[in-house]
Design goal:
Keywords: Cell membrane, Membrane, Transmembrane, Transmembrane helix, Transport
GO molecular function: xanthine transmembrane transporter activity
InterPro entries: NCS2 (IPR006043), Xan_ur_permease (IPR006042)
Number of strands: 0
Family: Belongs to the nucleobase:cation symporter-2 (NCS2) (TC 2.A.40) family.
Largest sheet: none
Pfam family, one: Xan_ur_permease
Length: about 270
């Protein structure tokens, strides 16, 4: 929002293009073409933006074709207590977010989520974070927008994920491919993410639809939790004067919503049970 070009009519127009393309493919296409509507929306919009002069291929031309990853490029691991505590808090934050993603996927696929499924999901994230550290990348976590992709494509099999993971491993050896991904205009990505974030939000509404809101305990728990989460999302600087450790937890709307919902649910259920 602080960028000089923010709100520029040309950027707004480019941001609308992927939304329109995704909607058109979902309305009129069938089969495979419909399932890759989001990918087509990003690709076609990027070509249009490039034709209008909004894309620079200089990073692609300067990047090498092949580069083998180097373990511990930034140095061998060191154990620092403050850093460890911070990372634990961050991991708890991502775990709470991932739990919501797991439940959304359970609702979409129609598969009942078990404790074992949650444990496997958390374990996979932990292993991915360790591997990310080894290869000098960011710690990995679930990408909530993929819930929207799964919902729109209708593909619920894990098989494509295996193929995609193998393909990404190969493409990760080419800096030129990585540079190509960085030249996608931000308005194009923003437009596509509106659709994907919207799908995630609607999936959450569908899950809430199953809750009995005639029960005041459920109504108050959901109302207060969602209100707190939205407020923090709109004003993330609310806790800027608090210690960093608290900002990590309280500055994330999803985490605050989840924690408050759990605590209020325990409070009201305990009271109603008594």
């Amino acid at each position: 929002p602080t960028a000089a070009s923010f709100g520029d009519p040309a950027h707004l127009l480019i941001g609308f293009v992927p939304i329109a393309i995704i909607l058109l493919f979902n309305a009129f296409a069938r089969g495979f073409m419909k399932s890759i509507a989001i990918l087509l929306g990003i690709l076609i919009s990027s070509f249009i933006a490039g034709a209008l002069g909004f894309v620079s291929l200089k990073p692609v031309s300067e990047a090498a074709w092949f580069h083998a990853p180097q373990l511990f490029f930034f140095g061998v691991p060191r154990f620092d207590m403050s850093a460890m505590i911070t990372m634990i808090l961050v991991s708890l934050t991502t775990m709470i977010e991932s739990t919501g993603v797991f439940f959304a996927l359970s609702d979409i696929t129609g598969r009942q989520l078990t404790t074992n499924d949650l444990e496997r999901g958390y374990r996979a994230e932990g292993i991915a974070a360790i591997l990310g550290g080894l290869f000098n990348t960011f710690p990995y976590s679930t990408f909530s927008e993929n819930v929207g992709v799964l919902k729109m494509s209708g593909v619920k099999s894990r098989q494509p994920v295996y193929y995609a993971a193998f393909l990404l491993l190969l493409l990760g050896l080419s800096p030129k491919v990585g540079a190509l991904a960085t030249v996608i205009p931000e308005p194009v990505l923003g437009g596509a993410m509106i659709v994907m974030f919207g799908m995630v939000g609607v999936q959450g509404v569908q899950i809430l639809h199953k809750v009995d809101f005639s029960n005041n305990a459920n109504l108050l728990s959901a109302s207060v939790s969602i209100g707190l989460g939205l407020g923090i999302t709109m004003y993330p600087q609310l806790f800027q004067h608090m210690p960093t450790e608290f900002q990590i937890i309280l500055g994330n709307g999803i985490v605050v919503t989840s924690l408050s919902a759990v605590l209020l649910n325990l409070l009201f259920n305990h009271r109603w049970a008594n």
